Amino acid sequence: MSMVTLPGLKDLIENISRERNLPRIAVQSAIREALLKGYERYRRAQNLERKQFDEDYFDNFDVQLDVEDEGFRVVATKTIVEAVSNSDHEIALQQVQDMGGDEAQLGQEVVLDVTPDQGEFGRMAAMQTKQVLAQKLRDQQRQMVQEEFQDLEGTVLQARVLRFERQSVIMAVSSGFGQPEVEAELPKREQLPNDNYRANATFKVYLKKVSQGQQRGPQLLVSRADAGLVVYLFANEVPEIEDEVVRIVAVAREANPPSRHVGPRTKIAVDTLDRDVDPVGACIGARGSRIQVVVNELRGEKIDVIRWSPDPATYIANALSPARVDEVRLMDPETRQTHVLVAEDQLSLAIGKEGQNVRLAARLTGWKIDIKDKAKYDHAAEDAKFAAARAKYTLEEDEFDQEELDENEELEELLEDEIFDDNDDNNDHDEEE
What we know:
The chain is α+β, with helices and mostly antiparallel strands. It has helices spanning about 10-20, 25-45, 95-100, 125-150, 225-235, 240, 280-285, 290-295, 310-320, 345-350, 355-365, 380-430; strands spanning about 5, 60-65, 70-80, 90, 110-115, 155-165, 170-175, 180-185, 200-210, 220-225, 245-255, 265-270, 300-305, 325-330, 335-340, 370-375. The chain is about 40% helix and about 25% strand. A hairpin with a 4-residue loop joins strand 14 (about 325-330) and strand 15 (about 335-340). The termini are far apart. About 25% of the residues are buried.
């Protein structure tokens, strides 16, 4: 069998494998595909008969790479026929028998060497091969990254700052001990305002998404602002959470507040089924030792750990910590609206700077919270207002249901009329016959 030599093939595979962190077998596969595309380009350029090549015309061709002898061969799988109509896909039975295939039969397939002459392969085909190889290697890298990190979505990784692109930080992350690093993107919206992203600085990041497809740039999207990072940090620092004695019920985080005058803040609700365990105390730790580790990792972000409760009023009061709540009135459980009454000196604390505290409490509990001054609150007037609103809503609902009922009745009457009309027409037709 003839062979096109490729001097330095062995070293090429080794170098690419090392530089791109790819297995040798993946590099060899990319080279084979690239050479096959180059051969296809060569054949199209040498098409003296000007026949049309379909997209799948070269599917029966393959490249055999010989790493030791540093070269390659092109082979084609052909079907044995009586009379050949396409020499690229078929071979005559007589020709196979002349080649020593005495037991060959019609319909069988044979693999034949169709390697072009070394000089004929051409400069154009070589350039095509180089371009395709670069693309195939990029595809191999994307596939490897996707397979390596797909199961790690929603987990926390250690990252190192590499460089900056526009407003994004490009970081190096690894899927585990001994694994090579790959690039990940930390966009502006996922960064923390108090972080100092200098070169080679290390951070814990939340792997938010592993992108698919052929887009350029990093496939991994990481975050420092996602609530999942807070959950991980507490689970890593509090053994009771890891042992499932304490559970995190809900998290509300505002890592990038709408105003630069308001700092990042998180509220986290915890609970336990063990009466002997204080879930809030377990998360805070002795003299705040545990929560301080989390705060330090998040560069001073304020964190409120509150006790979850199945009673909405208690849960809402806890969520507004550190404000002291006097009364929680569940005005409309169906639409989840509540009035929270506090003393005048607690108003600003309950609302928080630019409304941050009450905004996070509402997101944590799922209730719309209105903070009211207890001294100025008129219970009877507020009850009457909500009663009127509920009555109006109920009336509109009833009217809507009645309209829908009337429309259904009209539709049924129309259908009945059509059925009767059809029966009458059939009876008239029978009488005429």
